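Q: What changes when protoporphyrin IX containing FE is included in the input?
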Amino acid sequence: MPYVIRWGIKSSFREYIGSIEGAEEHVSDGASRLPDGTFVFPAADPAATMDSPELIRCRGAAGFRAHDGLLDVALNEPWIEGSDGDLRLSIRRSGTTSGLRVELARLARVEDMQSDTRWVFDAVLAIGGVHVFDGVYPLGAELDRLVVERLSEEEEAK
Ligand code: HEM
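A: The predicted holo structure follows.
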């Protein structure tokens, strides 16, 4: 069964964007949004299985624009990389198709919330992520918890 990444990025950032008049939020390339504001990024390879955290590759893009385009934050194609104990979340640099990636966050498994079908990670901002948010959040700022979840056959058929 394939998997998805479910992630709200940072709830205070979503609230901030929601409070700015004229701000736009969009999803594309297969990403979607749940009513609670969480983004869902599907596995890049529909045949991929949930074997190991460092082999999670998702597609899709979430974007935020506000302040007449001065604020332009895009999160494209989240991948989990590294090794267990040293996991990072990377995204493709916006505006490039070259595959250049930015390390957005560091991840740590939440030990008492793991199952065969669901992995939950604490996430904190990595140096690449500091740039993505224009230096507003410091290195290590707490982000929302990130979930990797195996799809049931029912969900997959949707
Ligand atoms: C015209 C330009 C901008 C204005 C007037 C502006 C204004 C503000 C204000 C007033 C806050 C505080 C909001 C609050 O505490 O509720 C804030 C927070 C923030 N701004 Fe901006 N901003 C601008 C540009 C940007 C840009 C270019 C970015 C780039 C990513 C950005 C990212 C953020 C972030 C991440 C926060 C913190 C949100 C949180 O509480 O988590 N802003 N901004």
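Observations recorded in class: The radius of gyration is 15 Å.
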